[in-house]
Write a structure and sequence with these properties.
Elements: H1 9-15, E1 16-18, H2 29-35, E2 38-43, H3 49-58, E3 63-67, H4 77-94, E4 100-104, H5 110-118, E5 125-130, H6 138-152, E6 157-162, H7 165-168, H8 170-185, E7 195-196, H9 198-203, H10 219-232, E8 244-247, H11 264-268, H12 272-280, H13 283-295, E9 301-303, H14 306-314, H15 320-330, E10 337-339, E11 346-348, H16 353-366, E12 368-369, H17 375-382
Helix pairs in contact: 3-4, 4-5, 8-10, 13-14, 14-17, 15-16
């Protein structure tokens, strides 16, 4: 698999200083976590799930989640379980391994049920998404993943979702996050990433952010994200990859505030129509939130519509300036400070080293833009599918 593999060689040469590198499900966990990019969720009840997975993979989706939890009504659960098994068997039999497939289960007991139902096709599953994860509920989920790996003789990964009341409530949050960290340490070898369930967390207080706002405008959510990153998203071996929360809007409706994309960059690149299309699809709000995700230490994003994927991946490409700074910083392992090659900031090799390593990791997966490539060019390429 490789991000932007739908572009022609000529288009890749035009856009990239360094093209994205290939990866597969066996890649080291840190590398694979970055490669998730925009993780597209689909209900397990979809009758064309196998065909949808193949189609979206061809369009650039590299990680997909089939949801058996909140996306499925209680009365449809048994039918959804049967559908997942049938559809994933069909997908495994007819498709190359060109997307990472995860199943969001509702209970730990569903994990062995799905593995046994898939039989020889169980290798289609890269891992499981574990909802409403807490220190109390977590062990049963994680042990089920371990047993699934033992049964299939292959690596199966876990992505816990942090979305419980104890994490939302200020008086219990830190204690719960510390207990979760202790639990995860026992299973570090199978933890691919941690996901933040913004919808469930908002529901604790009857909140739902509008398409004009980001999670960072809802202070009670922003506080949760800050504490999750503080305790679980630390740089180096002490932390885990934490992914951006879901963006749940995908069609235009009446707006209260102005669009969140400046017009001038699109005018300069003769791309007014691209900006208009982004705004019509509500992608300007997604773009702003994803930029803030990155600034706050989150990697990748949960999305629920194919139109979201191109924007997230385009903004995951490392700019030539970021890459130049990262290389300069890592080349000066002995310490010190000097002006960046772009002559617009200082680079301190020791304080900025962790940031630089993260930039290099992202550059390997999503590539480095040419010096003359703008975010407008990347958005146009990412959204062309």
């Amino acid at each position: 698999m490789r991000h932007f593999d739908f572009l022609s060689d000529a288009e890749q040469a035009r856009l990239f200083y360094r093209v994205p590198q290939s990866f597969d499900a066996s890649a080291p966990i840190n590398r694979l976590a970055v490669a998730l990019g925009a993780t597209l969720y689909s209900p397990a009840t979809r009758p064309t799930l196998a065909a949808d997975l193949a189609k979206r993979a061809d369009e650039g989706v590299k990680s997909s989640v089939v949801c058996l939890e909140d996306a499925v009504a209680d009365k449809d659960l048994i039918a959804a379980e049967r559908n997942v098994i049938a559809q994933l068997r069909a997908y495994s039999a007819n498709a190359q391994s060109n997307t990472l497939v995860f199943v969001r289960v509702r209970t730990a007991e569903q994990i062995p049920m799905l593995i046994n139902g898939l039989g020889d096709h169980a290798d289609v599953i890269t891992g499981f998404v574990l909802p409403k994860f807490t220190a109390k509920r977590g062990p049963a989920f994680l042990e089920a993943v371990v047993e699934a790996a033992d049964l299939t003789h292959r690596r199966i990964l876990a992505m816990p979702v942090l979305e419980s009341n104890d994490i939302m409530h200020a008086e219990t949050r830190i204690d719960e996050l510390m207990k979760v960290r202790c639990l995860l340490e026992q299973y570090r070898h199978l933890i691919l990433a941690l996901r933040i369930g913004a919808t469930d967390l908002s529901a604790v207080y009857g909140l739902r952010r509008s398409r004009d706002l980001t999670v960072y405008d809802v202070r009670i959510l922003a506080d949760v994200i800050a504490d999750v990153v503080n305790i679980l998203g630390r740089a180096g071996d002490a932390g885990y990859t934490v992914t951006g929360p879901v963006w749940e809007y995908f069609s235009g409706s009446e707006r209260l505030f102005k669009p969140q994309l400046r017009e001038s960059p699109f005018v300069e690149h003769s791309e007014r129509s691209l900006r208009a299309g982004i705004i019509a699809k509500d992608l300007d709000g997604l773009i702003r939130e994803f930029v803030l995700d990155k600034a706050n230490g989150l990697v990748g994003k949960t999305v629920i519509h194919p139109t979201h994927v191109g924007a997230v991946h385009a903004l995951s490409v490392v700019t030539h300036e970021e890459y130049s700074d990262a290389v300069d910083i890592l080349d000066r392992a002995g310490g010190g400070v000097r002006a960046s090659s772009y002559r617009n900031k200082m680079n301190e090799s020791k304080p900025h080293a962790a940031w630089a390593n993260r930039i290099i990791d992202r550059a390997n997966i999503f590539g480095v833009a040419n010096e003359t490539t703008s975010f407008v060019d990347l958005l146009g390429a990412g959204l062309q599918q």
